[in-house]
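Let's practice the habit of predicting before peeking. Look at the sequence and jot down your guess about where helices and strands might fall. Then scroll down.
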Amino acid sequence: MQSDNGPAGQPADDTPPLGPPERRALLRLARNTLEQYVRTGKRPDPNACGPPLPPRLHQERGAFVTLKKDGNLRGCIGYIQPVEPLVRAVQENTVNACSRDTRFPPVKPEELGNIRIEISVLSVPEPVASYRQIEIGRHGIVLKNGPRRAVFLPHVAVEQGWDLEETLGQLARKASLSAGAWKSPETRYEVFTAETIEEEPRPNA
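Done guessing? Here is the structure:
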């Protein structure tokens, strides 16, 4: 992917959004993976989860899978960089989110009916010259300071009601730095955008 910078030198993602069939295919794959892995410990064949997968889903993309139970976070894991095909990234991180997020116990079969899946398909992170170029609500943020690193998806600050400074302070804490480390000249930032795909609420859930 090759992209030009947007206004004021801000990175701009020129990747076309996924179409409805692609979005449905990813959600179907994630749901089938979640159900089968939680119940059996095995993953389904992606090609057996419905109609043939659209070709774009085999392109390498970064992706996060978020699980929410009754509106609350129940697991979230993903890849920032495009290290493998999107189909594989979604399936792998569905498994990771339901069983390997150390903040939560593994998902149990009796929880499945109350869990909604959210998939974030990411653009390639690009550096910004200053934190002032970061746009809350538009940009996901990667903070780097020496070996320390932390990431927020674009919706995190919006959901928490944080402004830019509070977001960066929270991100610094997440990286095990002091809250003010976000202002350090040693701290560098990359930004990315995310296309979010969510399941519809389930009846009687």
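How did you do? The chain has a mean pLDDT of 90.
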